Amino acid sequence: MSIIIKPVITEKMTAQGDKGRYGFIVDKTANKVQIKNAVQKLYNVTVESVNTQNYLGKVKNSQSINKVMAIGRVKQNKKAIVTLKEGETIDFYASI
What we know:
The chain has about 100 residues and is of the alpha+beta class.
């Protein structure tokens, strides 16, 4: 099971990177200790704290050809905001 699914690379999270905070989409069942250990192992950094947020999927409506409304929900996810030790950084673009 992979704990970290993908990093969150948005304008807002890139600005937080200057302060040593990085965002990741993680497995819904992962706890803070597992996320901390996964980030430390994957990026060779020291993690000071982990904050998590559970997101309920948005409700979407769609019309089919027969003009019937179908209501569905987008997939749920969990986001983790990881704060690193002072002076340490993660470079997501190094492997490109």
